[in-house]
Structure formats: structure tokens, C-alpha cells
Amino acid sequence: MTPVVYPGSFDPVTIGHVDVVRRAASAFGKVIVAVASNVRKSSAFTVPERVEMLKDALASIPGVEVDSFEGLLVDYLDTIEAKVVIRGVRAVSDYEFEFQMAHMNRQLRPGIETVFLVAGPEEFFISSSAVKEVACFGGDVSGFVPAVVADRLRERMKNS
Ligand code: PNS
Q: 4-158: CATH homologous superfamily?
């Protein structure tokens, strides 16, 4: 079975990401969740920390693997012989970046397809950056991230 790849920063994983993985696994069978290590934004967690939290949060979903990659997504797709990219979209504001990225990847590697999963009503307002901001000011993030992440986020934000 050819895997589909769900790439992202996952800094940190939220329940919105988990929902996308669950639905992608149900639709496509095998999903590789791939943490990008060269994203041009400052991160709260290292790549190994993000991978570890993802593995923990996704352990109960069959058919899911967690990996990380450096460099271009299309090069990573080549190495694992995958052709389908999964991305979750929340608001209309996500579309501009997502369309650009999907077209860029297709231009770089014809044959690559991006499949968008629309965020559910319970998750559409959740983003890693909003969750970090809430945690930073002492707010309760337990409803937005897997339990394993909530504790680590609180700890990390306290010390930052
Ligand atoms: O969770 P994010 O930050 O929205 O994910 C963006 C990500 C990591 C999927 C994207 O930045 C990416 O694919 N980075 C790898 C570098 C790359 O291939 N860039 C070209 C696509 S524009």
C-alpha cells in the first residue's frame, strides 16, 4: 500500500492534527506524518521532541508512522516513493498558502497530488501558534492538544 504523507511543523501537535491523521488513515490506510526540520520559523520544541509527542499522541491510530525530513518535501517524497500529500485546512486564510504550496510541489515534481481535509467544527480554530500563545500566558490548553503535549507545553512556556 502506497503511503500518503502528512507534512508539517507540528510545533506542537494539536487535536486538529490528530483529527486529520485519523481521517487520513481511515481514508488511505497508511499515513506517514513527517515533521519538517527546516521550516523558517522559530520553534518551541526540537524536531526529536515533536516526533516523540506525535508518536505518543498517534499511538492508538493504526497505519500511522512518524518521521522527520530536511530539505524539500518533494525530495523526501521521492525517497519513500510517495505521491500524495495530505494537508488540513481550517479557514479561508489557509487557502492562499496551501494552494501556493500544492502548486509549487506539483511544479517541482509533476505527479504529486495534494489532498485537503477540511477541519471539523470542533477543531477549525485551533493552531499550534494560538495554543502556544495561550500556554505562554498561563491559559488552559488541555482542550486543544493531546494530554502528553499539554504538560510539556506548560513546562516549556514557563521556562521561555
Ligand atoms: O505546519 P506547517 O508549518 O504549515 O507546514 C509547512 C510545511 C512544513 C509542510 C512546508 O513548509 C514544507 O513542505 N516545508 C519543506 C520545504 C519545502 O518543500 N518547501 C517547498 C514548498 S512551498
A: HUPs (3.40.50.620)
